[in-house]
Amino acid sequence: MRGEESLQMLAPTEGGSLPLVDMNACETKAPELWDYVLVVDRRAQRNPGQVQRQRQFLEELENQGFHYKAMEDQEKEFFGIRADNRILDRYQRLMEPEDTVPRGELSRPTSIRATNRIRIVNFVLKSKTATGDTLQDLVKDGVFEDGFPLHKGEEHLKKKWARWRSMFQRQPISDIRDYFGEKVALYFAWLGWYTYMLVPAAVVGLIVFLSGFSRFEASQISKEICKAHDIYMCPRGDHNRRFQRLSDTCAYAKLTHLFDNEGTVLFAIFMALWATVFLEMWKRERARVVLRWELYGWDEDQEEMALGLINCPDYQPRLHQHSYLRSTIILLLSLLMICLMIGMAHVLVVYRVLAAALFNLALPFLGEQVTTAVVVSGALVHYVIILIMTKINKYVALKLCDFEKPRTFSERESKFTIKFFTLQFFAHFSSLIYIAFILGRINGHPGKTVRLAGLWKLEECHLSGCMMDLFVQMAIIMGLKQTLSNCMEYLRPWLAHKYRSLRAPSQDPELGHWQRNYRLNPVYTFSLFDEFMEMMIQYGFTTIFVAAFPLAPLLALFSNLVEIRLDAIKMVRLQRRLVPRKAKDIGTWLQVLEIIGVLAVIANGMVIAFTSEFIPRVVYKYRYGPCRSGAQSEVDCFTGYVNHSLSVFYTKDFQDPAKIEGSENVTECRYRDYFSAQDSNFSEQHWFLLAIRLAFLILFEHVALCIKLIAAWFVPDVPQSVKNEVLKKKYQRLELKRWRGRAGWGWRGAGVGPLSPFPASSCSPRSTDV
């Protein structure tokens, strides 16, 4: 087994006892297992005080039961660190489940896992010494340059997992766990399960999208738009001071129908159900994995206290504390950052208004495509803003966590997750919320427009509707996130590793191995956290606005197939080894997934109700259209919808009609909304539509949430086989206690063996027993 210190056996002696005999003693001495390496830059360390602190730190480690070995090259000095067997035995005893070994009996010697050894060494190195220094303090002061666990025994992962040709092969989760620990293994198990569950969502989304193609030329609404040569649309901005025929938007109308059709509602409900089933099925898969790893009864606080006692016999756990003043300050600062994120959406609004005027002056050849250019460039600007705000959000979230003073690292990670994800959510989705629910609704109407600073007219939706703007924004941001970000995520560490590896390693095998590990890209505490965050944002794009972008699950599926191997190659080939951490679930991320699922129901309901043309089409069909009295085979039910959905504005009411090109030949123009042509107030259709939209939103959300609740109830979180296995283990522990106490308790009779399965007994309680 990987990670064993030595092979031991029981050998009889003259006295009849069975002492442990080291089989390796009769062979060539095995190479020492060094788990951790500290690096010193000999060129930078000229201060005698730094050398003294270095010596004191190493001596204290030695006094605690750790061994170290020094090796050096021309520039660096390396110190290999490993824990003594006594420390490892102490950890085994502290973490050993209760009553697993009979008292007074000799237990079979067990080896400690390499991941546990590294975790112990890392915990002690990061803890305070007698002088009050931690390894981080010494690195900051230049005493050590860096410290990291060593890669060793990773060849099997390179062959089976960390290569592109294994993209469609099953992940070796158990091997990942043996090498990187349970936390990393659970991340890849979750990512693999998420990718697997994306297949049905991608297929259904593709079918919904292709169903629009089947009616690409058959849609009555698209036909009317393409034939509307005599309908002129009102000028939409200062950059476009002429009337435009509605038929000029024929191609956009057909494209909009690809993702704004009757299948959109069904797909949104399907995705609400899919998100719930995905989470419930993942909980079941996690339960199986944790049971297989024998971590069902593992406790994180006990692990933390065991490591603390190993490091210091006088260790006392930090007690739980709460400060209402500190929590209030953190809440206010978080709200301030959220307001800043929302303000960034306003920056995007200002950019789009100014860009429209600038493109019209500097790029006159764009003509009618100025609006499309503004939408595309706005999405690119938003992507750049996301990259900048990600770094700012991470810094702010870390500072807020430090101010909150969490008790343990796990608690700090959980609080950091909540704060960072909240800020990232608003950074990524604020512009989408603006486009979906605000764009084109606050800019007034022809003849009475709202202007920015009294100069520039606010931007309106595309002539084919706001769904086109939302679709383009989603496609560009998600496309860039899945392509450009992944390329940079791989190329940056790959190029850095190639550059750092230009120098040949030492001829000494051990020193050369340490040098190769040193030249890998460094990792930090939240390296795995960044991978989780990237997937959570993608999950948000896949579910929250999926009604406007049915291809989101398909893009996510392709991206995840690449992401799994990309992360594997980074962790095994390009980066230093992550410090293994134990875990039995994905922590706070599970709550984040559940929150995203609820937000997805609300957002998709609002998109269908207020952004899509679904509700106006249905209302027209059953209230105003030719089919209001019943279906008619000779006429399409949507005949006349385009004329009904466009309001009339008389060109004589423009403030400066002479400046509008072609105004002398046009007496009225049309625009998307429901206003009265006489007094420019909302028409009766507007208020009726608003009532239907609100009713649909309430109905949709309640139906979707009920489906989610029923699915969550119908699919148990933990499989019955896992529950029965846990029950059997509890029963076996009780049987073991009973057998140990038989002599003292005076029990008689054969009884049941301590490790037998459930016996058939008349004493078994019935379901009605209390």
TrEMBL record:
UniProt keyword annotations, A-Z: Cell membrane, Glycoprotein, Membrane, Transmembrane, Transmembrane helix
Record membrane topology: Multi-pass membrane protein
Organism: Rangifer tarandus platyrhynchus
Boundaries of every Anoctamin dimerisation domain copy: 108-173
Listed Pfam families: Anoct_dimer, Anoctamin
Main location: membrane
Organismal lineage: Eukaryota, Metazoa, Chordata, Craniata, Vertebrata
Localization, UniProt: Cell membrane; Membrane
Official protein name in the record: Anoctamin
Domain of life: Eukaryota
Domain Anoctamin transmembrane: 176-728
